[in-house]
Amino acid sequence: MDQQLIEKVMKQVSDELAATKTASASASSTAPACDACCGDSVGLTEFVGTAIGDTIGLVIASVDPMLTDVMKLGNYRSIGIIGGRTGAGPQIMAVDEAVKATNTQVISVELPRDTKGGAGHGSLIIIGAEDVSDARRAVEIALNVLPKYFGDVYGNEAGHLEFQYTARASYCLEKAMGATRGRAWGMTCAGPAAIGAILADTAVKAANVEVIGYSSPGNGGTSYSNECILTFTGDSGAVRQAVRAAIEVGKKLLGSLGGEPESTTTPYI
Amino acid sequence: MDQQLIEKVMKQVSDELAATKTASASASSTAPACDACCGDSVGLTEFVGTAIGDTIGLVIASVDPMLTDVMKLGNYRSIGIIGGRTGAGPQIMAVDEAVKATNTQVISVELPRDTKGGAGHGSLIIIGAEDVSDARRAVEIALNVLPKYFGDVYGNEAGHLEFQYTARASYCLEKAMGATRGRAWGMTCAGPAAIGAILADTAVKAANVEVIGYSSPGNGGTSYSNECILTFTGDSGAVRQAVRAAIEVGKKLLGSLGGEPESTTTPYI
Amino acid sequence: MDQQLIEKVMKQVSDELAATKTASASASSTAPACDACCGDSVGLTEFVGTAIGDTIGLVIASVDPMLTDVMKLGNYRSIGIIGGRTGAGPQIMAVDEAVKATNTQVISVELPRDTKGGAGHGSLIIIGAEDVSDARRAVEIALNVLPKYFGDVYGNEAGHLEFQYTARASYCLEKAMGATRGRAWGMTCAGPAAIGAILADTAVKAANVEVIGYSSPGNGGTSYSNECILTFTGDSGAVRQAVRAAIEVGKKLLGSLGGEPESTTTPYI
């Protein structure tokens, strides 16, 4: 009986310990995906919603004239804002899709050095619209599709891998990543940066693609993040093949530094 | 009796678990405030004390001539140094008050990208004096008032908000933030940066203030931190009103990404 | 009997809690040292091995021609890559030794802002060789000696100290740190940066050395890390004496912000 008692207590304790570990693990990576649905509880007209990666979506119906110049908004007064602590690529992909589907335009894309202690970036993307309802709609779409584009972000305790692919790039990828609108576009990225260098070589050898850009910690294209990033274009089949080859290699290399790298949502490439 | 035993054990275990959680939470944010009182135990004449934000205060009575140029000290040989892992704004405010009260001058203010995995900056501030006792006195004052200026820094697991206000800016705010000496000065700041953009708009709409500067991750004024920062001046009542309006909005927005944002000390604005 | 039972359960629980704490503490600092021995399990010809600081060693036998320009490889096609999340100094020292011992050359050294939430840098070092077997040999040597050069990296919950010393600098220190080949070279570094400023003054006052460079968060030489770094040369005895004096002072100052600063391997200076 005493033994049973001990076991019962120990089980409950070990369950609680597991919960604590999980909580601290998830706190150090990314927040769970959540739909754009909390507007009522926040009670601010500017608030649109939140999503994975500590991402928040916001709108301003009419930016104060004192700020339009310092915020470099051009002629836009109605803006949408999407920004997160973790991930620039997923948010850029999500806004690319949102801008394609709405009457809005990308004003600026900035890459803070963040990821909450991780090796990569956060994001701050501003879009402009004639009418705030268009900006709000675009932000909603971006938040809703964001979990998809976290699908091929893989992480473990040592670092992360990120891959993106689209058959037809649009305005946000053009602005932020030098993609050509209407053409296929792919990206390989890893932190620590050493792995990203190998993934770049893997991708260009795996298929007939054309390099758009290569970024490393101290040579531009990053905000001193610990990443090497390759972007490329080509036939959509070739671009996808190049990305897929890099995913396989990336998982093995990052896995050598820690546990099996895992996606927090569902891979889409 | 068995049940009581289990409950007694479970309570003690759950208390210990709570202590563990608290410890890891505080480790990832800021150190507790502590007075400038540990000089004796360290046993170095350069040591003045420590304070909240992993901040340390130091003096050098006579900097070696080999370093005065590379450290850009001008004609000063006696210097005070205040720097922390978390927070640039609070340290700048504290030094502003310290320089006002002593015969010292601000030599340089640098903003490392830090906050121990958070979205913001750390700080490195160097002040100069004719006599090292003046530098030491200024550092002591700064360390002592520092907890006050952490009062309107609010944080949760997703990010932070920072607000500062003074009715009369002095030399450190002039040097670091472009404030005009003797005039009121206010600041709104949030990470993730998206929230900071809304706070800027909230502040300028809430009262009749004049913008001094706007900083974002990739457009200067930050070291690629995940923050948008607005600084402004005006009538002291208006500046305070603008800051207060932003505090209300900031707490709601950051709260949408996590728990209720909380101050580690006592709000002063 | 009940009391014994409680004590038994409490002991086991407290052991488990201690294990959890240790795990989270080590997760936030550096990975354990491990030899370059996991190549077989990864199954990629590019993989050489891993080591302390989440460091990975890799080679590419023939970099794709599309990448040689964007990666700024000059005429080299066979390269070795060494990069980690934590530590630039140790990796630079390790590669310095590896290049000295092999037929390879340093192509580039980049310093991402990293250390997994710490105050310092990560690293990305690329070396070139005529033959990939030379590059592989150099990477193996660097990974094997890396734990030695983490010997005088000391950390606690508030920050870190880093010291390096060599009686004869070679190509990597020349490229990355402005050292003169064949001469003694020393480095003092601390985060938060305020402590690093004191260590610089301590070092130059302790012995007859000549300053090579001084780096601070916003004045170049760092990627906005929260560090002040001094590098210097001179008679090898003097350089070592200067470094040793700074180690003593650094431990006291960093210790004032937290626990006793400890090395993760074995001090060598």
Topology:
Three copies of one chain form a homotrimer.
Chain A: H1 2-28, H2 39-42, E1 47-51, E2 55-60, H3 65-68, E3 78-84, H4 89-100, E4 104-110, E5 123-129, H5 132-149, E6 153-156, E7 159-166, H6 171-177, E8 184-191, H7 193-206, E9 209-215, E10 228-234, H8 236-255, E11 262-263
Antiparallel strand pairs in A: 1-2, 2-3, 3-5, 4-5, 6-7, 6-11, 7-8, 8-10, 9-10
Which geometry of chain A do the CA atoms define? Answer: globular
**How are strands sequenced across the largest beta sheet of chain A?**
9-10-8-7-6-11
Question: Would you tell me which CATH topology of the largest domain in chain A applies?
Answer: Alpha-Beta Plaits
The radius of gyration computed from the alpha-carbon positions of chain A, rounded to a whole number of angstroms, is 20 Å
Q: Helicity level of chain A, as a percent range?
A: 25-40%
- Sheet with most strands of chain A: 6 strands, antiparallel
- CATH top level of the largest domain in chain A is Alpha Beta
End-to-end gap of chain A: 55 Å
CATH architecture call of the largest domain in chain A:
2-Layer Sandwich
- Taken in chain order, the helices and strands of chain A follow as HHEEHEHEEHEEHEHEEHE
Kindly give the count of domains of chain A.
Answer: 2
Number of helices of chain A: 8
The CATH homologous superfamily of the largest domain in chain A corresponds to: BMC (bacterial microcompartment) domain
Mean pLDDT value of chain A? 90
Give me the oligomer status. Answer: homotrimer
Keywords (chains A, B, C): Bacterial microcompartment
GO cellular component, one term (chains A, B, C): bacterial microcompartment
GO molecular function (chains A, B, C): structural molecule activity
Domain BMC circularly permuted (chains A, B, C): 46-158
